[in-house]
Amino acid sequence: MRTEHHCDIFQLDNVIIEGKIKTVQKNYEFLISRLMEKEDYNEKYMFLAEIAQNEYNFELNRSSKFDEKIGRQITLLSVIIVAFTTMIASTFFATILTKAPILVGPLILINLFLLGIFLSGAWYQLYLASNLHSSSKFPIAEESLKNKVKSKGEIPAATYWHVYLTYVNCISDNREALKQRLEFIKKSQNFIKAAAISFIILLALIFFAQLYLFLVQGGIK
Q: Who wins on pLDDT, 43 or 189?
C-alpha cells in the first residue's frame, strides 16, 4: 500500500512538473512571438521614417536647384540693368532724344521709364524669392538619431514615429516656401516679358528716329 502510495505521489509530481514545463514553454513562445511582432513593428516605422527622409532630401535638392536658377537670373538682370543705364547715359542716346521728332522723343522717354520699372520689378521679385532660400532643417543630427534609437530608455518605434512626423513637418514647410518662391518667380517673369515688349518698342522708336535724322537732317551731327 505504501509503495503504491509513493508511486501515485511520484506520478502526480511528474504531472505537475510536466505541466509547469509546458506552461513555461508556452510563456516563452508567447514572449518570442511578441518580440518578433515588436521587431516587425519597429522595422515598419523605420521604413516609414526612411521614406520621409528620402522625400525630405528630394525637397532640399529641389530647393537648392531653385537657388541656382534664381541666382543666375539675378546676375543676368543685373547685367541688363547696368547695360540699360550705360545706354541712357551715352551721348549717342542724348543726341537722338534732342534731335528726334517731337512725338518720338516723349515716346522714347516713356518707354525708357517703363523699361526701368519692369526691370527693377523683375529684379526685386527675384530678390524676394532668394530671401526664402533657407530650408526647414531636420533638427536631429544623424549620429544623435542613431544613439537615440539604440538607447535602452527609448522605444525604437516611438522614436521612428517622432522622426517621421518631424520630417513631414519639414517637408510641409519647405513646400510652402517653394510655393511662395514660385509666385515671386512668376511675377518676375511677367515683368521680364513686359520689359522685353517695352525694349522692342524702344528699339523701333530709336530706329525710326535714326532713319528720320538720316533722311531729313543728313544724319546725327
A: 189
